[in-house]
C-alpha cells in the first residue's frame, strides 16, 4: 500500500491512454464516429468500480473472520471510492448516450442496472449511518455488503445478457470483439483499464489513510 | 505538444458553448466534427470527478491539521 | 438431526403463535384485499402489461409488510429465549420456511381476488401460477434475511425498505418478464431461461443467508 511503483505505473498508463485515446486511429463507424474513443474513458470507470467493490467484499469477509476494525474501515473506504467511479461512469455514459442513442437515459438495461447497483451501495452507506454502536455497525454492514455482492454480480453480468440492450455484446448487437476493437484499440483499451483500476486503488488507499488518521486523532 | 494544446483549446470551446444556454446549439455542435467533443466532455467530467475527490481529501486534512 | 428437530419445533411454535393471534395473516390479507380494491376503484378495467405490473407492485409491498414482521416484531425477551434453545441455523431455516408458506398462501389469495375483481385471466394461467410461486419463494427468502439485518440495526421499517429494494429489483424484473410471457401466452420453452435465473438467485440467496446469519445472530 505504501510503495509507489504501482502508483507511477497507474499514472503512466492513464496518461498514455488519455493521449493515445485522442490521437490513435480508430475504425470508421456509423453513428459513433469518433465518439468510440469514449471506450477508453467510460468503460474503465466500471472496471475500477467493480474491482473496488470486490476489494470491499474481501475486507468484509476478513472483518467477519477476525473482527479487526481496520478491515471494516477498508471496506467502507473502498465502497466510497467505488461509488465515486460508479457515478463518473453513469455521467459519462449518459453524455455518450445522449449523442449516440439520442437520449441521456435511453432505458437501456445496462444503464438501469448500473444505477440500481449504485443504489445498493448507497443503501449500504445509509445502513452504516443508521447504527451508532461501532462494533455492531461494522458487523451488520459487513454482512449486508457480502449479501448484496452476489446480487450486484447478477445485476451487472447475468441479467443484461437476457434482454435486448443498446450496449454492444447484448441482445443481437455484436460485441466489441467482433469488429470494432481492432488491434489498435486494444493497445489503448487494456492499458486504460489497468491504469484506471490502479488509480482507483490509489484513491481508496488515500481515503483509508486519511480516515484512519482521523480515527487516531479523535480516539 | 501542439496537439495537446489543441485538445485543451477544444475543451475550452465546449465550455463556452455551455455558457450560451441553447440546448439545440450545444447538441448540434457537440455532435459535429464526428462527435469528438463528446469524448472531450466525458474526459472533462472524469477530471472534474478527480478534482472533487482532491477537494474532499483536502478538507479532511485541513480539519486534521487544525486538531493537531 | 438435531437441526431438523429444532427447525420443526420452531416452525410449530411460529404457527402456534400465529394461530393464537391471527394478527399477521389477517392483517396482511386485509391489506392486500383493500389495495386490490383501491386499484380496482381507480383503474376500473385493466389488461395485459399494466395488469401484470400492478399485481407485482401490490405483491411487493404486501410481502415487505408480511415478512418484515418475522424479525422486527420479536421482542428482546423472546429473542433471548430462542437464542438459548436453538441454533441460529435452525432459527433462520424455520423462519424462511414459515415465511415461504405465509407468502404462498398470501399470493394465491391475492391472485385469486385480483383475477376475480378485474375479470381478466392471463393466456397461460399455469405459467403465471409458476411465476407467482417462484415470486413468493424469492420474496420470502430475500426479505427474511434483510429483515433480520434491519431488526439488528434496530431501526425498523424505513431501513427495511431502503435495504431491500435494490436487492429485490433484479428479481422483480425477471418476474415481470416471466409473467409477461405467460400473459402473452408464449410457448413455455421461451420462459425456461427466466425460471432458471430465478432458481439460481434463490439458491444463491439461501446459501449466503445460511453462511451469514450465524454471524448476525450472535452478539
Automatic annotation (TrEMBL), chain A:
What membrane topology was assigned to this protein in its record? Multi-pass membrane protein
Give the main location.
Answer: membrane
Name of the protein in its database record: Heme exporter protein C
Q: Where is the Cytochrome c assembly protein domain?
A: 36-159
Q: Where in the cell is it found?
A: Membrane
Q: Which InterPro entries match?
A: Cyt_c_assembly, Cyt_c_biogenesis_CcmC, Cyt_c_biogenesis_CcsA/CcmC
GO cellular component annotations of the record? plasma membrane
Role this protein plays = Required for the export of heme to the periplasm for the biogenesis of c-type cytochromes.
What superkingdom heads the lineage?
Bacteria
Keywords, A to Z, come to:
Cytochrome c-type biogenesis, Membrane, Transmembrane, Transmembrane helix
Stretches that traverse the bilayer? 38-58, 79-101, 113-131, 143-162, 188-207
UniProtKB/TrEMBL annotation, chain B:
The alphabetical list of record keywords is: Membrane, Signal, Transmembrane, Transmembrane helix
Top-level taxon: Bacteria
Residue ranges spanning the membrane: these are 35-57
Give the Pfam families listed for this entry: CcmD_alt
Q: Where is the signal peptide?
A: 1-19
Could you identify this protein by its name? EamA domain-containing membrane protein RarD
TrEMBL record, chain C:
What is the annotated localization of this protein? Membrane
Stated name of the protein: Heme exporter protein B
The record's GO CC annotations read: membrane
Keyword Transmembrane appears in the UniProt entry: yes
Q: InterPro entries recorded for this chain?
A: Cyt_c_biogenesis_CcmB
- Keywords (A to Z) from UniProt: Membrane, Transmembrane, Transmembrane helix
> Which residue windows are transmembrane per the record?
23-43, 49-68, 80-113, 125-146, 158-176, 196-217
Q: Which terms does the UniProt entry file under GO BP? A: cytochrome complex assembly
Pfam families documented for this protein: CcmB (PF03379)
Name the family the entry cites: Belongs to the CcmB/CycW/HelB family.
Q: Drop me one GO molecular function for this one.
A: heme transmembrane transporter activity
Q: What is its main location?
A: membrane
Q: Specify the protein's topology with respect to the membrane.
A: Multi-pass membrane protein
Amino acid at each position: 500500500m505504501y510503495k509507489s511503483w504501482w502508483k507511477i505505473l497507474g499514472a503512466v498508463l492513464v496518461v498514455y491512454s488519455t493521449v493515445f485515446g485522442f490521437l490513435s486511429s480508430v475504425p470508421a463507424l456509423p453513428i459513433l464516429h469518433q465518439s468510440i474513443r469514449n471506450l477508453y474513458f467510460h468503460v474503465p470507470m466500471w472496471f475500477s468500480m467493480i474491482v473496488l467493490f470486490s476489494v470491499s467484499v474481501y475486507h468484509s469477509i476478513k472483518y467477519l473472520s477476525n473482527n479487526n476494525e481496520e478491515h471494516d474501515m477498508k471496506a467502507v473506504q473502498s465502497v466510497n471510492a467505488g461509488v465515486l467511479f460508479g457515478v463518473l461512469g453513469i455521467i459519462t455514459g449518459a453524455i455518450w448516450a445522449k449523442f449516440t442513442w439520442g437520449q441521456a437515459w435511453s432505458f437501456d438495461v445496462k444503464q438501469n442496472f448500473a444505477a440500481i447497483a449504485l443504489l445498493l451501495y448507497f443503501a449500504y452507506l445509509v445502513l452504516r449511518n443508521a447504527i451508532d454502536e461501532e462494533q455492531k455497525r461494522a458487523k451488520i454492514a459487513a454482512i449486508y455488503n457480502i449479501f448484496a455482492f452476489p446480487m450486484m454480480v447478477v445485476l451487472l453480468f447475468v441479467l443484461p445478457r437476457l434482454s435486448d440492450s443498446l450496449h454492444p455484446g447484448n441482445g443481437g448487437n455484436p460485441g466489441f470483439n467482433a469488429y470494432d476493437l481492432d488491434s489498435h484499440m486494444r493497445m489503448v483499451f487494456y492499458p486504460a483499464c489497468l491504469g484506471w483500476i490502479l488509480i482507483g486503488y490509489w484513491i481508496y488507499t488515500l481515503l483509508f489513510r486519511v480516515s484512519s488518521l482521523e480515527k487516531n486523532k479523535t480516539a | 505538444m501542439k496537439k495537446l494544446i489543441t485538445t485543451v483549446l477544444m475543451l475550452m470551446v465546449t465550455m463556452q458553448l455551455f455558457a450560451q444556454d441553447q440546448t439545440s446549439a450545444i447538441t448540434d455542435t457537440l455532435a459535429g466534427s464526428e462527435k469528438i467533443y463528446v469524448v472531450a466532455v466525458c474526459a472533462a467530467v472524469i477530471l472534474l470527478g478527480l478534482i472533487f475527490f482532491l477537494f474532499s481529501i483536502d478538507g479532511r486534512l485541513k480539519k486534521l491539521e487544525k486538531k493537531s | 438431526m438435531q437441526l431438523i428437530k429444532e427447525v420443526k419445533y420452531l416452525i410449530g411454535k411460529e404457527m402456534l403463535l400465529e394461530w393464537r393471534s391471527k394478527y399477521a395473516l389477517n392483517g396482511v390479507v386485509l391489506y392486500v384485499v383493500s389495495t386490490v380494491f383501491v386499484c380496482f376503484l381507480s383503474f376500473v378495467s385493466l389488461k395485459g402489461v399494466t395488469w401484470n405490473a400492478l399485481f407485482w407492485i401490490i405483491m411487493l409491498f404486501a410481502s415487505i409488510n408480511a415478512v418484515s414482521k418475522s424479525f422486527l416484531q420479536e421482542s428482546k425477551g423472546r429473542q433471548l429465549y430462542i437464542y438459548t434453545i436453538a441454533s441460529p441455523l435452525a432459527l433462520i431455516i424455520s423462519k424462511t420456511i414459515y415465511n415461504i408458506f405465509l407468502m404462498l398462501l398470501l399470493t394465491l389469495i391475492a391472485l385469486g381476488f385480483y383475477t376475480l375483481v378485474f375479470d381478466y385471466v392471463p393466456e397461460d394461467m399455469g405459467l403465471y401460477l409458476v411465476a407467482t410461486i417462484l415470486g413468493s419463494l424469492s420474496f420470502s427468502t430475500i426479505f427474511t434475511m434483510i429483515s433480520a439485518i434491519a431488526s439488528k440495526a434496530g431501526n425498523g421499517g424505513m431501513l427495511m425498505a431502503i435495504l431491500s429494494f435494490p436487492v429485490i429489483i433484479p428479481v422483480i424484473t425477471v418476474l415481470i418478464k416471466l409473467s409477461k410471457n405467460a400473459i402473452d401466452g408464449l410457448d413455455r420453452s421461451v420462459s425456461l431461461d427466466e425460471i432458471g435465473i430465478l432458481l439460481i438467485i434463490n439458491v444463491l440467496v439461501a446459501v449466503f443467508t445460511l453462511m451469514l446469519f450465524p454471524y448476525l445472530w450472535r452478539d
